[in-house]
From TrEMBL:
<protein>
    <recommendedName>
        <fullName>Lipocalin/cytosolic fatty-acid binding domain-containing protein</fullName>
    </recommendedName>
</protein>
<dbReference type="InterPro" id="IPR031259">
    <property type="entry name" value="ILBP"/>
</dbReference>
<dbReference type="InterPro" id="IPR000566">
    <property type="entry name" value="Lipocln_cytosolic_FA-bd_dom"/>
</dbReference>
<feature type="domain" description="Lipocalin/cytosolic fatty-acid binding">
    <location>
        <begin position="3"/>
        <end position="78"/>
    </location>
</feature>
<comment type="similarity">
    <text>Belongs to the calycin superfamily. Fatty-acid binding protein (FABP) family.</text>
</comment>
<dbReference type="Pfam" id="PF00061">
    <property type="entry name" value="Lipocalin"/>
</dbReference>
<dbReference type="InterPro" id="IPR012674">
    <property type="entry name" value="Calycin"/>
</dbReference>
Amino acid sequence: MGNTVTTTIELTKSGDTYTLLTTSTFKNTTISFKIGEEFEEETADGRKVKSTIAIEGNKLIQSQKGDKNSVIAREFSADEVKAVSVAV
């Protein structure tokens, strides 16, 4: 099912706070965060996690800690965003 979902990602910055809006045919999510600061998040599948996001070049690297730990790497280019999620 995950491979059939169409997703739009919008990343904005206001001061030192980023907002990541993910819109899909399945569910919409919004997270606001500061780089390197832990925050609470509810994932698209309803899990409660604590996340920290870092910037590495043109990538946002998100570490999620909860019942299932994972890392999501989002790589931004001029015409697309590639996201890879790995359980750790």
